[in-house]
């Protein structure tokens, strides 16, 4: 059917010929920071009237459920399109964004697709949770939002320990959209990352991961010290707790580039993430030997490697220094 089917029919007493042929005004926005929220886009386009406010903004995600840096925004009217186009190549945070008008036929296809868009999903994925985190902590983190019964799935690593990731299913798309706004808020002293996800992506262990492990980037002497400290603490945590997640790396980045980025701090291990095709995803985890180094390393947040600014997320607890 026609996309207007979802709307209730207009009351008969006010025949409105305009309602028949509704023009669609849709903008495509590219080059957004990964952490960009619908709320920030609403402010960025504050001179434009956006249909249904935040609901008229569709942030798209890639196949892995990660933000793609693009959005489609429904505008009320042609003059709003003009105002939106004036924002082309203006800066939103540290990046300039590109703004294009979408033709009517593409717009209809996009709106249909937006219906099945993971952005319309009621599931989010959390990353960077403290190992001691309980379901109750997650409920508190999303206080005010309605989580369905048994809607929290904590992902365990291969040794059946808390992996620091979890999926949360909410009772509505709206609650999930609101949950995404809490990206980078804190539990304990750790940033929690909140990503869009879907029900079919929920899993409770890492066994299903297609690639066995991300490639280690050779830093042999440092790797030895990392394993030594693990033996000493009698637990596989140890240095594993002091890492920084990097996002936005150029694809051709090398381990050496990452070491230089954090110099003179000593990096003990680098895990580069790969996407489904084995290509680098632009993300990496960088391990340090102690909380203090990881904290110091955070001062490099939003500095550049080549043309790209790098976002850093802290995953380290002061308590986990020394022995467990």
From TrEMBL:
Source superkingdom: Eukaryota
SUPFAM superfamilies per the UniProt record, alphabetical: RNA-binding domain, RBD
GO MF annotation: an example: RNA binding
SMART domains to which the protein is assigned, alphabetical: RRM
Region (Disordered) location: 203-234
InterPro entries reported for this sequence: ESRP (IPR050666), Nucleotide-bd_a/b_plait_sf (IPR012677), RBD_domain_sf (IPR035979), RRM_dom (IPR000504)
Coiled-coil positions: none
Keywords noted in UniProt: Repeat, RNA-binding
Pfam families documented for this protein: RRM_1 (PF00076)
Domain RRM: from-to ranges: 25-104, 122-199
Polar residues compositional bias, start-end: 222-234
Protein name: G-rich RNA sequence binding factor 1
UniProt gene name: grsf1
């Amino acid at each position: 059917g026609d996309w207007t089917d979802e709307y209730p029919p207009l009351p008969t007493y006010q025949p409105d010929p305009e309602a028949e042929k509704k023009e669609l005004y849709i903008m495509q926005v590219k080059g957004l920071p990964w952490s960009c929220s619908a709320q920030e886009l609403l402010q960025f386009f504050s001179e434009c009237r956006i249909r249904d406010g935040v609901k008229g903004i569709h942030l798209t995600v890639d196949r892995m459920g990660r933000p793609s840096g693009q959005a489609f925004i429904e505008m009320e009217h042609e003059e709003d399109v003009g105002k939106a186009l004036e924002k082309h190549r203006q800066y939103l945070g540290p990046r300039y964004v590109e703004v294009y008008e979408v033709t009517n036929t593409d717009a209809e296809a996009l709106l249909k697709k937006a219906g099945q868009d993971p952005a319309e999903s009621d599931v989010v994925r959390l990353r960077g949770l403290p190992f001691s985190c309980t379901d109750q902590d997650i409920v508190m983190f999303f206080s005010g939002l309605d989580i369905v019964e048994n809607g929290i799935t904590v992902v365990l690593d291969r040794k059946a320990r808390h992996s620091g990731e979890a999926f949360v299913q909410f009772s509505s798309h709206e609650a999930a959209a609101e949950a995404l706004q809490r990206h980078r808020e804190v539990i304990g002293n750790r940033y929690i990352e909140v990503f869009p996800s879907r029900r079919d992506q929920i899993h409770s262990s890492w066994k299903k991961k297609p690639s066995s492990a991300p490639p280690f980037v050779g830093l042999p002497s440092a790797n030895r010290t990392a394993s030594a400290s693990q033996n000493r603490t009698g637990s596989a945590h140890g240095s594993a707790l002091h890492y920084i997640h990097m996002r936005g790396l150029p694809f051709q980045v090398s381990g050496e580039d990452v070491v230089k980025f954090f110099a003179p701090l000593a990096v003990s291990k680098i895990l580069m993430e790969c996407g489904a095709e084995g290509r680098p995803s632009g993300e990496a985890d960088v391990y340090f030997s102690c909380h203090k180094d990881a904290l110091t390393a955070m001062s490099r947040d939003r500095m550049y490697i080549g043309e790209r600014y790098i976002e850093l997320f802290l995953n380290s607890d002061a308590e986990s220094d020394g022995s467990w």
